[in-house]
Amino acid sequence: MPSDLNPQPLPPRATKIYAAREVMYDLDKFQRALASVLDRAGHGGCTSGLQLDWMQFEQFVINDKLEAMPFHERAIGFGG
Fold first, then answer.
1. What confidence tens digit (pLDDT) does each residue in 27-73 have?
2. DSSP output for 4-63
3. pTM (2 decimals)?
């Protein structure tokens, strides 16, 4: 009698992660951010079953001279 279970593995759980430039290009900060994401996903130190899509988070503000200025990430809680 064949098993009723589907032998195909479940598709990975896609997760988008938005991080500031200072996190994306600093290995220590990136590793700490990854550990936090994995803990939140209930995976501890494992990415098995997860599809992690890292997106660089940037914001700009237009000043009174109509120039684009970077928005300070620390003001919105990013960085370390």
1. 999 999 999 999 998 888 788 888 999 999 888 889 899 999 887 64
2. SS--SPPPPEEEEEEEEHHHHT-HHHHHHHHHHHHHHTT-TT--TTEEEEEEEE--EEE-
3. 0.63
